[in-house]
Amino acid sequence: MNNTKKQPFFYDITLRDGNQSLKKPWNTYEKELIFNHLTELGVQGVEVGFAAASDMDFEACERLAKISPDNIVISALARCTQNDIIKAAESIKSAKKQRIHTFIAMSPFNMEYVLNKSPNDVRKQAIEAVKFAKETIGKNGEVQFSVEHFGDCMENLDFVIESLKDIVKAGATIINLPNTVERTRPSIFVSMVEKVYNALPKDIIISVHNHNDLGMATATTVESYFKGAVQLECALNGLGERAGNTNMYEVAVALHNAGIDVPLNLSKIYELALIISDMSNVKIYEKAPLIGPEALAHRSGIHQDGAIKTKDMEKGAYRPIHPSLIGRKDDEKFGFTSQSGKTAIYEIISEAGYPITLGEAQRIAPIAKEAAEKIGELSTRNIVDIYYNNVLTVKGAFKFVDFIKSDNSSIKLKFKYNDNDYEIETTGNGPIDSCIKAIKKAGFECEFLNYEQKALNMGSDAVGMTIMYFKAPDGSTIISRGCDENTFIANIKAIFNGLNIIENMRK
Ligand code: KIV
Ligand code: ZN
Question: Phi, psi at residue 152, to the nearest 5°?
C-alpha cells in the first residue's frame, strides 16, 4: 500500500541544517534573502532555524515568521526539552502556519553512547516533549517529531514503531525519519519507511530527511516518496552537515521526470543554485548533477553526435532534461579532446560564427585530434586557428604566386607546383575563368563546377569569402574557401585551396 498520488510536500532545511554546517552561518538579513527565494521557488514548508541555538538564530526565526506568507508552514527546531520547545514556539508565533519540530535519537548506538539513556527513558522523554510542544503551540500549529538516527534503527525498529504510535497519540502529526548518517542503503531504508507508514494512522504525514554521506540521499528520498513519505526534507545545493542533505533540485527533477506533479517553480533552480553558492561560499562541484558547470558538457565523439542530433528536442540523447526546465540558459557544451570528432568541430566552428560543412569538419578533425592529444582540450580559439590554417588555407603542392592582368584582356598566372614554377598566359571570361583555364593549360586537371561569394565578419573586419565547388576525381563535390578583403584574391585563394584539397585526396 502506498500513496504515490499525493503531491510531494517540499520542506526546506537550508536555513537550519544547511545553515548549521556553514563556516559562517547566515545572519537574519541573509536568511531573509534566501527565505524570499524559497517562497518564489514555491516550497511548502521552511525550517527557519534552531531557535535555542543562539540569539541570532532566534531573531532570524522571529523575522522569517513575521514575513512568512500564509500558505507556508514555518517550523523551528527544538530538542526534547521544555526550554528548547518554548523558545521554538516563541520564535515563530507570528506565522500563520506554525510547527514545532522536536527530535531525539532512538538508535541503540546513540541512546547508549551519546544520550546515555535507556530506550524507555528516551521514549518517555519523546512522548512528554511532544505533549508539551502540542500544548505550547495549541491550535495555532502542529508538532513534528523526528527519530534522529532512524537509519540506524534496523535492530530496534519494533521499539521505534511502538514509540511512534504513542508519540502520535501525544500529538505529533508529522513523523520525520532521518537517515542522519547515511549508514543504511536506500532499499533497506525505504523498507523501514514503508513499515512505519503501514503502522501509523493514515492521516499522519511521513517525512524523510536523508543525509548524503555516501552520496545516495537523492535516491533514498525519491524512493521513500513512492513508499509513503509525502514530506521530503531537502536543502538548496544539498547544503547540510558533513556531505550535506538531500539536494532539493535533484529530488524535484527526478520526481518530475517520473511523471509526478512537483509543486515547485523549477525554472528558478539554476539561478537560485548560483545565488546559494555565492551566499554560502560553497562552490558548485564541476560535475554536480543539473547545476554543475560541466553538467551539460559532451566530449566523446559518440555523445557529441547524439547530443547534436537531439539538441533542440525536449528529450536529449545525453541529458536528463532540457536545460530550460531549470532555467539554465547555457546550452550543451562541446569540448574538443582526443576523444572527440567531426561533430564537435562542426558545432564549435558554427557557434564561433564561421561557415563550415560536415565534410570540412571531418577533414580537419584528425588535425585537431593530434593537437588535442598533446595539449588536452582545445579552446575555441585553437579550433578556429585549425579552421583558418586548414580550411581557409589548405597546404599542398600548389602555391599561388601572382596574377597579372594585361591590357588586351589576357592574364598571366604565376604559381608553383612542388618545386616547379609555372607562368601561364591565357584569356578567359573573367578572372575565375582565366585562372582555371591557365591551370588546365599547364596540364593539371581541374573540374570547376560553381562558386558563390559571401561577406563574412571576422573579428572587426568584414571580409569576402569565396566558396568554390569542384568535382573530385572520385566524383564527389569538393568545397573550398578563400578569404580576403579583396574579392579577387579571395577567388584565387579558393581555387588554389580547392586544387590542394583534390591533390591531397589523390595522395
Ligand atoms: O539529521 C538529523 O537527524 C536531523 C534531525 C534534527 C532531523 O537533522
Ligand atoms: Zn539533519
Answer: -105, 25
CB 56 within 8 A of CB 32: no
Per-residue confidence (pLDDT) for residue 330, from 0 to 100? 85
pLDDT at 460: 58
493 neighbors 391 (Cβ within 8 angstroms): no
- The Cα–Cα gap between 223 and 186 comes to 8
Residue of 115, 206, 209 with the most ligand 1 atoms within 8 Å of its CB, for mutation? 209
| Whether 151 contacts 184, CB under 8 Å | yes
pTM of structure? 0.86
CB of 47 closer than 6 A to ligand 1? no
Same domain flag for 377 and 489: no
pLDDT computed for residue 1 by the predictor: 40
For 253, the enclosing helix (H) or strand (E) is: helix 248-257
**146 Cβ below 6 A of ligand 1:** yes
Which domain CATH number covers 426?
A: 3.30.160.270
**Do 116 and 144 share a structural domain?**
yes
- Tens of pLDDT, residue by residue over 228-238, are 999 999 999 99
Cα 13 to middle of ligand 2, angstroms: 8
16 C-beta closer than 6 A to ligand 1:
no
For residue 340, being part of any structural domain is answered with yes
What's the CA gap between 504 and 301, in Å, rounded? 25
Domain, as residue range, for 413: 398-506
d(CA 12, CA 283): 20
Which among 468, 472, 501 is positioned nearest to 482, based on CA atoms? 468
**Is residue 3 domain-resident?**
no
First-to-final CA distance of the chain: 72
Residue 57 near ligand 1, beta carbon < 6 Å:
no
Main-chain dihedrals φ then ψ at residue 73, nearest 5 degrees? -75, 130
Instruction: Please list the ranges in the chain whose pLDDT falls under 50.
Output: 1-4
- 85 and 163 in one domain? yes
- pLDDT at res. 459: 57
In degrees, rounded to 5, the angle at the alpha carbon of residue 153 between the alpha carbons of residues 149 and 155 is: 160
pLDDT digits (tens, 9 = 90+) for 463-483: 889 999 999 888 989 999 999
Taking CA 186 as the corner, what is the angle to CA 147 and CA 151, rounded to the nearest 5 degrees?
20
In a domain, 281, yes or no: no
